[in-house]
Amino acid sequence: MPSKPYDLRERLLLYACLIVRVVHFLHTRGPIPRALSYQILKSGTSAGANYEEADDGTSDRDTLAKRKIVLRELKETRFRLWVVRKCGFLTRDQDPVLDEMGELIKIVAKLISNSS
């Protein structure tokens, strides 16, 4: 990822696109990574969608709860990507996706701690 946007919304959108490409790649790697890829696709793309939804929270508490969902979705995706990476279905070529996910987790966790 050459340059990262400052806007978290845009960054989550680009991240979702990366997830789509990784899932597409996993579909070429056999039945097990293909099965896991559906879960990666769901959690990896829902992080951005939930962040969008957080803007429409009915209260500060609701917005915070939705941001916590974003964090959970990112962490779930991280775990599943680690599994396919440790099993050898992903290569070092996909490590930048894991790195970006780690950065997004830190950013969202900081947003949550600042609003608590």
What is the average of the pLDDT values?
Answer: 92
Per DSSP E runs of 2 or more residues, the count of β-strands stands at 0
- Oligomeric category: single chain
Largest sheet: none
Number of helices: 4
3D shape: elongated
SSE order in H/E notation? HHHH
Q: End-to-end span in angstroms?
A: 31 Å
Sheet/helix structural class: mainly alpha
The percentage of residues in β strands lies in under 5%
The helix content, as a percent range, equals over 70%
Parts with pLDDT < 50 across at least 5 consecutive residues: none
CA gyration radius, whole angstroms: 14 Å
Indicate the topology:
Blueprint: H1 8-26, H2 31-54, H3 60-86, H4 95-115
Describe the structure.
This protein is mostly helical and 116 residues long. Helices cover 78% and strands 0% of the residues. It has helices spanning 8-26, 31-54, 60-86, 95-115. Helix 1 (8-26) runs antiparallel to helix 2 (31-54), helix 1 packs antiparallel against helix 4 and helix 3 runs antiparallel to helix 4 (95-115). The longest helix has 27 residues, at 60-86. The chain is elongated and about 45 Å long.
Summarize the structure.
With 116 residues, the chain is mostly helical. Helix content is 78%, strand content 0%.
Task: Please name the defining characteristics of this protein.
elongated; single chain; 0% strand; 4 helices; 116 residues
